[in-house]
Structures are given as C-alpha cells and as structure tokens.
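Deliverable D4.2, example record:
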Amino acid sequence: MSNKEIADRYAEGVVTGKIVACEFVRLACQRYIDDLNKELYYYNETEVDAVINFINLLNLTEQEKPKKFLLEDWQTFIIANIYGLYRKDTEKRKYLYGYIEMARKNGKSELATALALYHLLTDTDAQVVLSANSREQIKNVDFKKVKQFAVQLDKKQKYLKQYYNSIKYGNNELLVTAADSSRLDGLNASFALIDELHEAPDNKLYSVLKSSMGSRSMPLFITITTSGFDTSSFCYQLREYCVNILNGVAVDEQQFAIVFTLDKDDDFQNPDVWVKANPNLQISVSPTFLASEVNKAAQFESEKNAVLVKHFNVWTKHNSIDVWIDDKYIINAMKENLSMDDKRFKDLECWVGVDLSTVSDISAVSFIIPLDDKYYIWNKYYLPEDSANSSVNQHTYREAAALGYLTLTDGNVIDYDYILKDLIIVNEKHPIIQLLYDRYNATQFIIKCSEQGINTLPFSQTAGNMNKPLKFMEMLFKSEVIQIEKNPLTKWMINNVIIKQNNLGNYSINREDKSKKIDGVASMANAFGGMLQSGRDAFNIW
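Output generated by the structure prediction step:
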C-alpha cells in the first residue's frame, strides 16, 4: 500500500467513523479529502515518499529496545498534508505553517525533529531552527533527539558535524534557540520548529521566526504543543484561529491544523475516548498508565485538571468553568439554506432580541419564529469596517463579511441605521411581537424603532434575568428542537460561551476574554427571555 493510500485510508476512516477521533481531527480529514478534489491542488507523491523513506531510516531510541521509526497512519496523514498538497499555479507546497496539538508521549517531538533533520539534509542553503520557550526543553528534548538521529546516519560525524548548540551539513545549519536567546536576531530560517508553544508568555518567539522566513520561497514553520492552563495565552489564540479554520469560520490556505483532544461531551474516565487525544495509544502511550492517571484524578479533584491537560489535551484552568452546549448539538442545530422567506414561515410573527455593541464592536440581532414544536432562528451581525481591520479577530471578521455572514458599516463607529433597516424589512413580512433589548447604549436606537411601529421591551442581562432563557436554550439544543440558520459566527459565539452559576444555581453568561465574542448568544437569550416572560414559551416545553 502506498503512503498516499495509507493517508487516504486514515482520512476516510475518521470521516466515516470507523476510526475513533475527535471533531477537530474529523474536520482536518474532511479538509484533506476536499483539497484532493479541488482543481487548485495536486498531490506530490514523490515528495511524501521521500520524507517517509527518510524517517524510516531512523531508529527510536527511547524504548526498551531501539526500533525502526515506522510511521503510524495518523503520522503519515500529517506528512501527506504538509508535503503532499501542492498548488498547481505556483508549483509550491500549499502549507507553509503547521499546528499540531495532542496529549503528551504521543511521539510528536520525534516526528517534528525527524522532519527538522530531513530539511537540514535536503533544503538548499538551509537554516533549520529548533526553538522552545525554555532552554531546557529545546536542549534536553528536541536537540537531543536530533543529535541521536544524526549519529544514526553518520556515526563518525564526517558530514553531520555536531556542536554545542548546532549541527552543520556543508553550508547548511541546524541551530537551537530559546525565547530569551540573543540568537533570535538575524535568522533566515528555511524550516522552523517551536515545541510546547503553550509555555510561551507571548508571541515574540513565534513572530520572530515567522518574519525570519520572509525571503524564503518555500519555507515551513511547524508548531507542536500540548494544551495548557492559560486560555488567554498566544498559543491558545493561535489554536482558536486554527480551530476556526477547521470549522470554516476563517480561511487560511497556508495553515495546516490538527488537534487531537476530547470532544466536549466526552467523559475522560471512559477508555473508549482516550484515543481521541492519544493517537499513539497502545504504541507509545500505555492504557494502563492512563488508567492510573484517571484513577488519581477521580480520587483527588486537585489532580483532575492536570490530568486533563497533560494526558487528554484539554485546555482548562485550575478553577474550571462549566461548558455550556456540547458541539454536537450546535452542529446538529445549524441548518443550510434556512430562509425566513420559506413559505412555511409566511406571515408568521417573530420574536427579536438585540445586543447592541459599544460604538466599535459587534452588534447582534436574533429573529425567532416558533413553529410546529420547533424554534427557528436567524442571526444578523454588524461591525464597523475599521474595527474589523484592527481587531485580533480580523481574519474571522473579513472572511465572515466576504461570505455574507457579517455586515460591515462604514467608518469606525457602528451605524445602527443598518440594523433598523433590516428590522423594518423583517417586520413587514413577519410582524415583530416584541423586540427585547438591554438598556445600555440603546436609547436613541429604541426611539427610532418605536417610531417605525416596532414594539420594544427592555430586558436586563442580569443573572436573575438571564438564568431562565439560558437554561431554556440549553434544553432546546439537547432536545434537538432548535434550528438555526447556518452561520459560522453563531457557532463560534456559542462555543465561546462559558456559564457560571451563583450560589442559587442561576446561570450567567461569560467568556474567557474580550476577543471571544458572545453577542449572538446574548441577543438570542434576550428574545427567549421576552418569550418566556410573556407566557408564550410555546408548546409547554419549559
């Protein structure tokens, strides 16, 4: 079986469910399958075979007995993506950047360092840079592995000459550096590797390495990491960007991404899901060891988050916050081509919730029509053009706008007239029962709505008020009686929500940081809140 056939088999197995994998891996596999069918790309089997044949020359030494470095199917899949997909118009690799995230002890460092050595030997005028946040990590882990591999190929160091922090092969050089190193200046990397990016306090190292590749025609920048505890870190931001790419919220054809982790609804104590975060389970990761760690976490709550981070690649905090809606329910609720103009909804009334932003942020409007024991929802989003260009979410916003999911208003201040215009259009076809709004920043807008004959009612977003609609929405998702017009911004926002409970058990809506927008959830909650307050909760579901 060829290497391409192995990669294809893995991708098909994941997508069809024959191979147990998390949603992010499934999306990565589907992306690969889709790319193979695009006219823009072709598959370079020669390059993939060259990389894999090189790796097969190496031995894994950190075993009871050294053994051949024979790639598992998931590893072959990664190589097939990074080295196999080429653009027809440029004759260059599709991917310049790779983000690989999984639990510890799954062989990601061995794979990445083998690739580093490959580039040292094959790139023209190569400068291969191995980097990490700490000197200990890069010297004692990654550089150590590269040196071991190099000795296997050239025991006498006739061609691969090893030095304290570098290896030279003719004019080519592999060097190691850390975030605090003076060697960061003047780099001209052809291949760069950052290991354990989650430990980095900022984006300095990443940015320096990325910019160092500017003069290269076909560089490659690989980031490998496990999860961490800091969801405000640069690594987590990069991870979220990659997740958005996989989900179709953002488009970046140069960024490969694969994340091996548990799905949100998975019980980490269930051995059947362990392979989702540990693709090398029963190979380099012992189920017996994992069982011991899980047992420890079950007995000692203080150990739980550490086990989730290290062994199941789940980003968390020492003080965890409950996740609201499982991703499978969100995906199930999203419906293509759900239109308010469908004859099913002709002349039906609707509930509306608005979440008005400050002058330079996202505003959201939600339209809800109850029909036949279901709730149908359409969300619209608005953002000043200047804000979209300057935001940390600019990739997400620009792509959403290009696809029609986000309305950009002129300038740097939100123009509420865009929202009012859409409300008037909807009100003519689907009379608005009530428009629910938070009083903050809404006075002038609400006056204009009232002048247009739209019935408005304030809805304060306090914990006491938000508790009932948030729990109601949660129940609707889990009961699968909610259908939402498919919009990647809506999915993104629902995923960004974290729920906190006060001592009375009341829900309040929260997020990790300001970049994680949740405006669409707030506007939906406002609409449902008005519906529940009116006693028209429809069909006695509540």
